[in-house]
Amino acid sequence: MLGLRRAVCEILGRAGRSHSDLLSAGRQVVRSQPWIGLRGSPAAAGANLIQIARTHATSSNGGFDSQLDDLPPTLLKEKYDEVQKVEVVNDVVKRLLSLDMASKSDKLKIKIQQLVDKVKISPDDKTSKAVQIAVLTGRIQSFKEHIQMHPKDKANKRKMLMSIDRRKKMLKELRLTRYDTFEHVCKQLNIEYTFPPEYCRHVTKRWQAKKALSLKVYAEVKQQKAEGLINEKTPRRVRPSPVKE
């Protein structure tokens, strides 16, 4: 795996701007690296190596389902979707401008925009509560997918928890002010809202130990009273206070 990464980096370092330079650089790397074991003619070695690297990059998601899988690869990026001359260019330029060779951040922007289009009130709506909830939903799902692949990434886990808390507060405010919009947002974004408890106490180890000790002492005292080892306390007699003359 490390050798494949080095070979791809060497291709990208040697390659020029044209496609022929990229293929020639790939053929040179294949000749110097016989461990790759590519089949076919040497003329297709560069293209095969690029295809192997691309397949490895797309299949290295750990087997988890992503929210970006439903995006079509022929969809153009966010900056080029309204350009009129895009349909005239050749296939290579179209692939460069489409999601077929786009980064994850570009795909996430388009996915968030699709979620915003489901819940926005008007075409110019960009700051409403529903739009902010849709943006946070896309980011939270992206954080979840990242943490599934990298469970030790504490920084992104903290960002995900902060985003979840922020979205929960917005949903609570939206439920109290505009309940119809709240139902529409939860239905379109597949959010399962759970009502917060009336009383929530932060559980610590010290509180758990004190609670367990108190229950244990209460159970022992109750058992001793039932066995007659402890007599019931008689109420104290209150002495009358002397009357001042």
TrEMBL record:
Q: Which UniProt keywords apply?
A: Mitochondrion, Ribonucleoprotein, Ribosomal protein, Transit peptide
Under CDD domains, the record lists:
S15_NS1_EPRS_RNA-bind (cd00677)
Checking SMART domains in the record gives: Ribosomal_S15
The listed locations are: Mitochondrion
**Superkingdom field:** Eukaryota
Q: What is its main location?
A: mitochondrion
Give the source species: Staurois parvus
The molecule here is called Small ribosomal subunit protein uS15m
